[in-house]
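Extended Data, panel c. Modelled sequence:
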Amino acid sequence: MDRREEQHTIELAAAGDKAAAEKLIRTHQASLYSYILRLCGKPELAEDIVQDAFVRVLTNLHRFDPRFRFSTWLFTIAKRLLVNAAQKHRPVYDSEIVGSWGGEGEPGSPTMREESRDRARKAIDNALDQLGDEQREIIVLFHQQEWPISLIAEYMKMPEGTVKSHLHRGRKKMKRIFEAEDAGVALSVPFDSEYA
């Protein structure tokens, strides 16, 4: 949905239109959940945070400033809820189980591909866990959520150059971690490539 349509939907939802509120949730729920899950690594916690974030956002739509992106406001609220919920605990990443583990499987078989994807996910989770909070969040926003540098800078309240620097250093560190652990898996994240 473009920004004008989104603003109209927000106005309707703020006036009590349930269909408009549902549309906002449907539009942003999957990306918000995957963002929070990447930050905390706990599906149950991510579900709770996303639900709580939408409750807070929908009850405070009258406070939304249309000069900014709705997704930035929503993600900020969800991140604050996550920080509050996990102040005393360091996040632990749980990779989802890709599929069944039965059978020997031949190279190239679905079981082997699933095992390879599982190893790749675990390697990425491990590398993300070793990054600082800001680097981890920037990498997740850029690669998983596909946010542009300008939006990340706005959301993180830092200059674009700082975001680029964190992204570059985070990628380099993740690459060193992969090499040190000899992950041996093909990853789809271009850690050496330039960013847009």
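Residues 91-107, 183-190, 192-196 have pLDDT under 50 and may be disordered. This feature is highlighted in the accompanying rendering.
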